[in-house]
Structures
1.
Amino acid sequence: MKEQLVLIGNGMAGVRLVEEILERDPERYAITIIGKECYPNYNRIMLSNVLQNKMTVDEIITNPYTWYEENNITLINEDPAVGVDAAKKLITTEKGLKVPYDKLVFATGSHPFILPIPGSQKDGVVAFRTIDDTAEMMEAAGKHKRAVVIGGGLLGLEAAKGLQLQGMDVTVVHLAKWLMETQLDERAGKMLQKDLEAQGLKFLLEHATTEILGEARVTGLRFKDGSTIETDLVVMSIGIRPAAELAREAGLEVNRGIVVNDFMETNLPEIYAIGECVEHDGKTYGLVAPLFEQGKVLADALTGIEAKPYQGSKTFTSLKVSGCDLYSAGNIMDTDGLQSIEAYDGVNGNYKKVFIKDNRIEGIVLYGETSDGNRYYNMMKKGQEIADLQSIAILQAAGEEAGSDDVVAWDDEETVCGCNGVTKGDIIRGIREKGLTNVAEVGKVTKAGTSCGKCKPQVQTLLEHELGEGVTASTGICSCTDLNRDQVMTQIYAKHLTTSADVFKELHFANPEGCAKCRPAVNFYLNVAFPTEHKDERQSRYVNERMHANIQKDGTFSVIPRMRGGQTNPQQLLQIAKVAEKYNVPLVKVTGSQRIGLYGVKKQDLPAIWKELDMVSSQAYAKAFRSVKTCVGKNFCRFGTQDSMGLGIKLEERFEFIDTPHKFKVGVSACPRSCVESGVKDFGIICVENGYQIYIGGNGGTEVKEAQLLTTVETEAEVIEYCGALLQYYRETGIYAERTAPWMERLGFEAVKHILSDASKRKDLIEALDVATAAKRKDPWHEVVGDRDIQEKLYSIDRRELVTVGD
């Protein structure tokens, strides 16, 4: 017989615990869940989106009834537990059911706090906690015009904005001097108020409500100073209280909440508790991420896995109300020993404040520009010392770009989704072990991106890094805008926008700084649109392109010098060997593109290695024209019909260092045997007796796409001409991060062929390519080796160790 595991509470924390148990040992328990509401488990955080007409109730259901059935879970719904006999291990529900247990988990959550003032029970007074509360608010908005939200905290402001979008005249009443006083300091709170007032919300701060007026239904409020306000609806959003009454009656130790130890055990055997109802080390939590962390600890303990003790959580708050972005984490109160670093940009409405104690981050407040939030939060969680970071740039490493949030470079234990406590490692393991291929699948398995959604671009970046061309590119830019690639490009040309900042401002991107997904895309589009006016924004490129090297899983890098056409000589081989030996390179390998790669190189060694190699980069890390793979050709092979290696070298010399929407691979085979797999290259050449067959749109990778025959030409010059024309047409019409195979499917092969078959159009495209790349086709490592500032800033090199061409 399986042990009977009973969960009291069908909310987010409890059901997440059950999911964690099923993940570890699905056959261990017979599980029963007892719930109070008449719904299956849903995402309470998304209620504000329902109120704001962004989502429906069905869309916020995270575990439908079929999930309970599929996992053989007994759900007792709309029948709350009212009694627990710990001696008999028996639970009694409101409707009289008797439910035995072997192990019992309290996940009863919390109650919304209702002010104990006259009139609080009148019709039209509601909390904002459940689906039913939300439905009542929306129904009231359809009948009435005025609403008051009591409470200027996170949930209260989201409720206020939602009611305003429902057509109501909304006033927020708040007891404190500024909004969200427990998460924001005064300056940030006042900035938030100003922005929300500009959107039509009204505020009464430092007002204490003493009475709710009206007969059967609310008609107004009276305040402590004697003033009043008329209203048809009152929403109470002034905090929560742990729902611990049942636990206290059962004999559990209860202070503010149910007292638990580091393994979520209560004072009674076989009874556990997690979520908003518990008190751990004197603290209670009302945010989701800590509750999920507790669930992982308890799931380990209940399935016989050695559990790491729960040590409490560092919490954060992220809010976006109609364009107002804020981020808060940790301790932001000016207590003894707490110092701060502050930066205020009154022109753009941005504010950053980092609280420091003992050389470590203790708290964070960001308003306006919040892209640094995850970086600061992870520094705080790890207890990272900040002595070597620049305070003037708000704890930004020397030379590091502001807002640098390339998730690929993060450690696995760093948090990507703060709402749900999901780390980079959780996402990577899900992609690798469960074959996840899109953001929705990652969200379903790990919960990343299923709450506020701000981390979705980072999840997409991890998918693209892990799966490459296995990820289908979206036709849109990112979550910052509804505009797709063509619409963005049209506006760039029409309004003559020449910087990313101009694009984000003029096209009304939700994030005025862009995000990790749209910044590199917009930078590329500007490079294509106005190559002579737009200055490439290095800080917008992904980490590999900023560092000019592929970052590896352990944080080291690869060095892959270019060997045009795959050809090398003894001097190059000797030099590579000397460098590999001198710098203790752990792996030297022939790459798939017939180059020799050095792997495991330390970041600070990169400039010196490139200087000593005295070779140019193959750009194996870039969205650009890559190396040309060739066979030995007719000069050595008895089957060869043309000089494939010589043509490959000419192609590389002509087009190397040219940026493209995605990597652009070329192969030249000297005969139809196609030893270099020309048929799965973006641009493939198969040499025949009478010339060169040109194939386009082939891709290898997780989804192999066979290239299609474009034409057959007689001369090498024609091959190079077609290649240049294809490159520029792809640059001008491709979606950033879109390989040529899906690009050609989107445009249609015949349409692409029609363009490239026109000699005058090819000439125009090549001229445009030459103009666009004239000043930008250069080896990036030559610049790095010759610039001491870049070495010091990007590669963290001590000035005594800097190298230059003349050394």
2.
Amino acid sequence: MRSQPPRLLTATLLAALTAASLHASAAAADYERVLNGTFESGSADPWWSSAGVTNRVTGGELCAAVTGGTTNPWDALIGQNGVPFETGQSYTFSFDARATAAQPVTAAAGESVSPYRGIASQQFTLSPEKQRFSFTFTSTLDFPDAGNGQVAFQLGGQPSDNTICVDNVSVVGGVKPPGGVNPNPAKKVQVDLVAYVPGLPKRATLVSTATTAQTWTLKNSAGVAVASGQSTPKGADATSGDSVHVIDFSSFDTAGTGYTLSVGEDSSFPFDISADPVKRLRYDSLAFFYHQRSGTPIEAQYVGDEYARPAGHVNVAPNQGDNNVPCRADLACGYTLDVRGGWYDAGDHGKYVVNGGIATWQLLNAYERATRVGDATAYRDGSLNIPEKANGVPDLLDEARWEVDFLLKMQAPDGMAHHKIHDANWTALPTRPELDDQPRRLSATSTAATLNLAAVAAQASRLWKGVDAAYSATLLAAARKAYTAAKANPAKLADPNDGTGGGAYSDDTVTDEFYWAASELYATTGDNAYRTDVTASSHYKAASLNRGGFHWGGTAPLGDITLALAPNGLPAADVSAIKTAFASVADQHLTAMAGMGYAAPYDNSTAGYVWGSNSTVLNNAQVLALAHDFTGAAKYRDGVFEALHYVLGRNPLSTSYVAGYGDQAMVNAHHRFWAHQNDPTLPIAPPGSLSGGPNSALQDPVAQRLLAGCPQQKCWVDDIGAYSVNEVAVNWNSALAWVSGWAAEKAGTPTPSSDCDVSFSAGRWNDGLSAQVKITNTGTAAWTSWKLGFAFPGTQRVTSGWSATWSQTGRDVTATSMSWNGAVKPGQTVHIGFNGAGSGADPSTFTINGKTCRTA
């Protein structure tokens, strides 16, 4: 879906290469060391080119356009890094090649970093006719998989421009089969590397072939044993390749830090028993989106000096900018669009409507769900460290709006939405956003993108109605226009071959997007036309919800979630059927998880572990969470936390896939700015960034080289070049944000004080409400004055009040006693109230003089 860019090297690379022995070793095996030597995929990955050279795969060949006028052969290069060599072993380097104009080239093997030691090189003269070339050498150096070994073609030292094409490139030899090893050390006692929440189940996995129970010991940070017990043997776990036991230490519930779990001589990484880390993760996972903003500077006051950067793609050289972007030349759409803003989709600089759509929906749904069945105070104004944190609007809505506004800009004059906008060609790794000099191009409009726009704009209109009525109306108009356009163009599909410079994101089925968009429009407007489209859909009543979950290309369950949460005019029995379907699929997940060595809500029965598997785990955790919301059953809540435990380290790699969380956490995300692995002056992935996770298809060269033969759950490596397993993406972090926000809400509320009770009741009409608040002193000491505090979970605002001095900042409300009712003796009650406007659930947490009260 995304392409691996080149790893560019210094101009002196391979200058020291010398010829080596041509004698073959009798022990050599026929192990191919080069990846993508035939170029059959149509991609150049992982072949890179140096300055002055442009790679293109044409007609099944890699053709390099070389700028003339260089001095040395090594001044113009194409090559591949990470090639493994073994000292003393024989290799045969062979290839087909031709040149537009005859010239000499040098084929070389050696070291890709200083001091650039050479293993072997040989010069050949190319002609316009394709020829086969070959030479054999014995390696004098030893480079492991994905190490510093390299093969390259030196193309420079010529006075004129030329084009050199190579094909069927092969380096065969060595005695060690490539791949099969993940460099991250794994423990035999696998735990959540971050924390277990008090009061909830606490399980770990022991890797052991023992068929009998093993004794486990839980130790505190001082190394003192605080609990012990026996493991439960589970046997072979095919998905991980491990033989496992399960350890359940739920009976121990003392909060603390630095616990370890051990069996014999084997000990886990340290972890906490605390609700605090998941509450931090709720915000760190959302901070990811500010980092990914395009078209605005990322300021140190919000992210720190390490992650601050200038605005990208705003027409400041070398950027060509996003303010006046044309369509691809072959489309000739006849207009340009200003598409500044939005989020960079992933590790590249593309912005994609279908991926941005589901990511935005998920953030907005987290807010809507919290206002209707949860507690939205966590998302109030000032909760996130973003520039809009004091504008009176809930910060989660502010962050989502950054992408919603971009989606609106992607709407073409006819109402359709362009599928994506990105660079004309893949940029190098690393490339800071403000240093990207590639032209920017709009891809064609598509039905899927148009329906994403319709769905998200309708959803956003509903949520902004009480915040900004004019903006809400603008959103609804865009949503209606998009839906009408999509119905007029029901099968305008994205081109699956449009993958140069950005991911294709092709989708050949859009009935799910139609259902989703109709559901959002119906929930927002109540219009019969949208209702008819909803009820007539083959996806109605969660018909397509299953253990496979939902994703950017399978969006029907998003409509189901909205219809189950947002008030609408559907029959109660139909809404109940949707909720029942969520519980049914959640039960299927729990049944499957009970048999797993590393419990995760994931169905690997058909495609194995796929690109972005961690987001599938978390989207399925959202299904479990909603099943808990709909039924109240604790088993579904526990399943959500099991999913988080898997993502945060209870997995066969002993790795937290969330940057900054746990002693062995993802660091080297595939990203063009968080590229410390390639450039020490750049940062690593910031805390709260989610890696895509195991991908058993091994769809990038680094993964192919390192992970050949890996069991499904072990097909992952923390390498910046392993984009099919270790990229980040907005729709993956939106899943983490939704689930961690839900989990933080369920991880415990402040212990209520025994000094006060508060009772809240409200009558409502249209956009108004009138609330009565009863405050009782249940303590033993009299109050001389009091101050009530609470936060609205929705868009409500106080317009007038009585029996107190009322004030409101954002969603935070305070009511301070008057001169005549401040003195309250134990057992006495004060009645106050207010009139207001806006919508949302009643506030659920109240304080008096800073202490949390019981709610009556």
3.
Amino acid sequence: MKAIRRFTVRPVLPDPLRPLSDLARNLRWSWHAETRDLFQSVSPEGWARSGGDPVRLLGGVRPARLAELAGDRRFLRRLTAAADDLDDYLTGDRWYQGQADGLPRAVAYFSPEFGITAALPQYSGGLGILAGDHLKAASDLGVPLIGVGLLYRHGYFRQTLSRDGWQQEHYPVLDPNELPLTQLKEADGTPARVSLALPGGKALRARIWLAQVGRVPLLLLDSDVEENELGERGVTDRLYGGGGEHRLLQEMLLGIGGVRAVRTYCRLTGHPEPEVFHTNEGHAGFLGLERIAELCASGLDFDSALEAVRGGTVFTTHTPVPAGIDRFDRELVGRHFGPDAELPGIDVQRILALGMETYPGGEPNLFNMAVMGLRLAQRANGVSLLHGQVSRDMFAGLWPGFDPEEVPITSVTNGVHAPTWVAPEVLRLGARQLGAQRAEDALTVGGSERWDSVADVSDQEIWELRRTLREQLVLEVRERLRASWRQRGAGDAELGWIDGVLDPDVLTIGFARRVPSYKRLTLMLRDRDRLMELLLHPEHPVQLVVAGKAHPADDGGKRLVQELVRFADDPRVRHRIVFLPDYGMAMAQKLYPGCDVWLNNPLRPLEACGTSGMKAALNGCLNLSVLDGWWDEWFQPDFGWAIPTADGAGTDPDRRDDIEAAALYDLLEQRVAPGFYERGRAGLPDRWIEMVRQTLSLLGPKVLAGRMVREYVDRLYVPAAQAHRALTPDTASELAAWKARVRTAWSSVSVDHVETTATGATAELGTTVGLRVRVALGSLTPDDVEVQAVSGRVDAEDRIADATVVPLKPTGAPDLEGRLLYEGPLSLDRTGPYGYTVRILPSHPRLASAAELGLLAVPSEEVGEAAGMVLR
């Protein structure tokens, strides 16, 4: 019979065990081994049944066992130590508290998904895992972050396979009362709520759940409340579900409702109000509109409020392709704002203008969330050096006339939270080598000097550790594979072969990620005979562990999964290659440490960063990857291999896959597999072990989320907080008025004449050439602009590369036509074809970049030709 109503019955812990509740409700347990060990000792069987979730564990412990533990002095000592350690972690000074003055009092971090732990399944892939690692690292460093997201009642889907290998999706219902969450409540005990106005006089209401991630509160908005109508209750039904209006409402709730939730949380708890708002991808971009509306309600006009909001906003883009960005029909967006809907005090046309693709190649009827995010943020970044370059190219239309390298999008390369992803065995080895505190500092704060001691670990210890981790993975794979085949309809009598799947002494390669086409799950199958030879090689065999989910609406991705599964089902190779369904955090934490090589073969440059290889590297796993994302930035032959790419513009996609698959097979046959099995005098693979050592010591400190968050603090959060403080209502109004005046006057700005002291078309290295430039500024003054000389080597089409920029200075009074003379030196510091040009840019001390307004004036062709622009 089916129940008509569901309750969550919480256990009543004896007084001596009350601290267990606090430990379970703070998600620090998900990356703190000692706390997890404590919970496991409560009931090893219950811990396994709960999937390592303390809340579920405590809900199933028998009262007799609780009474027994309440009288167990040894357990109570461990409990007291764990509770004291958590208290010290939450209240003591950390890295952030030791920095100079001027840091943000608080930062609000918005993301559509957060991967904190498998016990809180609110993530689909890399974006959410990155967001979870960002929060954990901020907690470890003491950064006063507030996370903001949505609570999806079905989370992301669970994946199983049909008998013929087709992906099947399941959406289990999540009860918030059974998750490590507490509901945010008003002082009178009623649930705290946020509300959005919808067209037709309707409303979208949401309650606020709190997940405590160490020191960082994570606010999750949940629309499944009785006050909502059925359609509105389903807004937070599932992650990336639906489309059109459903997705728009999710993003309005995340952005606008999220700001209101932050205000509510700060009011109720006394937490400092954020000075910086960080938008993790465009999904939360509407947060800027809510903040503009707040300032307009206090008396500022729209333009002044826009400048104040931009100063304190950071926008991070994660996608390298326009197709990965949410875009909505402008009429749909327009209907949800204005007098009859949300933000009634703001002109709908001003809202629409922030997101419209009003640039060459854009679609003028589409509202682009990333474009709005960039227009609402004074600071923006990609997530690797290569991705920063790709982003500058992709969004260059927003800054017309500027070279892509001048587009104001920087990069902060992603990192991963080491305590979450490093195997306990690796942690214990580090603690023995460094001491517990220094090992913790190495994994959280980073710094290469803390990782240098890896050199002191013996070859034997490293090799035994790798063997242990590989053996654990083999056992994990067999267990998961057996469960998968049972779900596919197989009986135990058919599954005896699983006991022989994988070998703890065979080179093990991992490949696990989402399954969009550009990640090329099946590139390894390009030449099946050759792959089979690699798997079954008599002297240098390899084995492959593969996992990944295709989006529920992506039948092409599902076909790739099925193709891989069918190959792995072949009795000739099924002991050497496996596909594990339902890839998630729990599986990943077993998979990364147990692999010897992590494979990544995306279409370059479509991998924004790709952090799975970082997690593997922290466990001593070597990377074998296309030079994309972070690997393009940090690859060295000392600790991995680069798969050559055939990414020329004229290469046919099928031909490209053939070439790159052949390069992958060559690397595996000739270098990777032989290197693993080659033995030195002591019977150990000396060269391989040295690569593991180099991976840990050289890559370890770079790939940390602690390094990433420290970069965000220094390079983005601190400047944003300073801009936020400087942009008071008066200064924001002054800046908005100045921008309006400059935009109005810019059509009258021109470079009218350029001359140099150069006497010919050649000059000697080290020569200094004098420049004289006459410019017209119209109604602007020299204080409003900067006149620059831009010089450097030129190509065959006279494009300047690796440019040097030198500001020129005004001299004398305006001439009879009102033009001003600017002068300055031009140093010829490079040989070969050399060129220069002159340009005029707006200049104001509160601009974060000279390109911020997207305005510049350059010489006309006639002026350029008369000036002799190129020296050869």
